[in-house]
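User: I'm writing a tutorial on reading structure tokens. Could you give me a worked example: one chain, its sequence, then its tokens, then a sentence or two explaining what the tokens reveal?
Assistant: Sure. Here is the example chain.
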Amino acid sequence: MLGSAFNPPHLGHLVLAQEAHARLRLAEVVLVPTGRAPHKEIEDDPGAGVRLEMTRLAVGDDERYAVSEQETLRDEPSFTYRTLELLRKERPDEELVFVIGSDAAAGLERWRNPERILELASLGVAERPGVERSEVEAVVERLGGRAEFVDMPHIEVSSTMVRERVGEGRPIRYLVPDAVAELIYERGMYASAGAGEPRARGLRQA
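And here are its predicted structure tokens:
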């Protein structure tokens, strides 16, 4: 399970999914767009349904990945432990791995019901600059869980960066999958009215 707002999904998300799939020997990586964030509003949110649509476009027909609508269908806040409980019901015979960045893993004790998270799944931790592996290991040990680390290329792309570039009229090709860029521009997402269509044409011609 790889959860995120995916607002929008970008190549960093896909590289993380790919490296987790390969290095952790996973049968499948399930991307789970956040429904209603429990602690803060999702900035510039086009809506959970749209983020789900973009996530499906991002993975396309790659058989290594699936997209779950578990959180986008729920009215309640999207707590990770609850999503894992529902995935466990769907996949009772499968071992679950929760893929997470080391920065988030280091703060896992502040999450809702963290012991339950590590009861339901082991962690696949993508290392981030500025977070020592020992810090994550100490947190996981205190919570009684298991973790395996995922080395991956450091890609400085974020959803915030993508949204800002759209708003500034700057290109986003090669930062997000082409199908996601097309949808963003065709619907005028993250930008003032009318800003998207010329770039959508340019993208198709490139």
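What the tokens reveal: The beta strands are 2-4, 29-33, 65-67, 96-101, 121-126, 147-150. Residues 193-206 have pLDDT under 50 and may be disordered.
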